[in-house]
Structure formats: structure tokens, C-alpha cells
Design a protein that fits this description.
The protein has about 80 residues and is mostly helical. The protein is built from 1 helix and no strands. It is rod-shaped.
Length: about 80
């Protein structure tokens, strides 16, 4: 075992590290692509949900209004029972 063997061993280890870094870079590129696709899908879904949210808020307003009308009607009915 001489210096040449030690240097060869270091080269082998460096090559293994380099191969691992290449795999990490490949994984990073795939994940970046997946993230881009996710962002695009999310943006499209947000565009679909915005009009639905507006309709939801309008429906809540109608339900609250009907609840108030029903409460007033119930109070009038109860008052009429005792009058």
C-alpha cells in the first residue's frame, strides 16, 4: 500500500460522490418540473373557484335573509297566539 493506492482510493471515492451528486441534480430537475406543473394546476383551479366563492357568498346572504324573515314571522305568529 503506497501513495498511489491511497490516491486511487481517493479517486474512487470522489467518483462515487460525483455520481451521487449527478443523481441529486436529476432528482432536483424532476422536482422542479413537478412543482411547475403543480403551480400551473393550482392557478387554473383558483380561476375556477373564484366565481364559485362569489356564488357561495351570495347564497349565504340569501340564507341569512331567509333566517331573519323566518324569525320575524315566528315572532309575529307567537304574538298573534296571545293577542
Amino acid at each position: 500500500m503506497g501513495i498511489k493506492d491511497d490516491i486511487q482510493g481517493l479517486h474512487t471515492k470522489v467518483d462515487k460522490i460525483d455520481d451521487r451528486l449527478d443523481q441529486i441534480q436529476i432528482t432536483q430537475v424532476r422536482q422542479a418540473d413537478s412543482l411547475d406543473n403543480h403551480i400551473e394546476r393550482t392557478h387554473l383551479l383558483e380561476q375556477i373557484v373564484k366565481p364559485m366563492h362569489k356564488t357561495y357568498i351570495q347564497c349565504l346572504g340569501v340564507i341569512k335573509f331567509l333566517g331573519i324573515v323566518a324569525t320575524i314571522g315566528g315572532c309575529v305568529w307567537i304574538i298573534n297566539l296571545f293577542v
